[in-house]
Design goal:
128 residues; 42% strand; 8 strands; three-stranded antiparallel sheet; globular; 12% helix; 1 helix
């Protein structure tokens, strides 16, 4: 009986645990070369975070601000002629020009490092 209660409590605790951010290990191809890297999406318990890719440095960059405060204002906006959407561009730390935030790994349709549309992203880290 006690074992059942403990098992039920463990299930309830783990089911109610949610994480604000997730880290992914990405595997992509550039021709025959395999490229591996890590990228994070989402913030933590004390901060919000957006992810972008800087084509100049060929690195993912992150814009953080304290949770509960207003999100950063766009540095610029651009109209995407293919979709008609207006893209908001933000100033990320240590990056020269403004960049669009990538909302999630699912929204990343093409690997920004290799151009691979069939890249694989595996969750490996959950943080809060």
């Amino acid at each position: 009986m006690i074992v059942r209660i403990l098992a039920a409590a463990l299930v309830a605790v783990t089911a109610s645990t949610s994480y604000a951010g997730t880290g992914y290990k990405v595997t992509a191809k550039k021709g025959e070369e395999v490229v591996n890297y890590e990228v994070n999406f989402g913030g933590g318990q004390r901060f919000e975070q957006w992810t972008a890719f800087d084509p100049a440095s060929k690195k993912f960059v992150y814009l953080q601000w304290p949770r509960g405060q207003a999100e950063p204002k766009p540095a610029a906006t651009v109209r995407d002629h293919r979709t008609g959407e207006t893209l908001k561009l933000y100033k990320f730390p240590n990056v020269e020009g403004p960049l669009p935030a990538i909302p999630s790994v699912e929204a990343m349709r093409v690997c920004p490092l290799t151009g691979d549309k069939a890249f694989k992203a595996v969750e490996f880290l959950a943080y809060d």
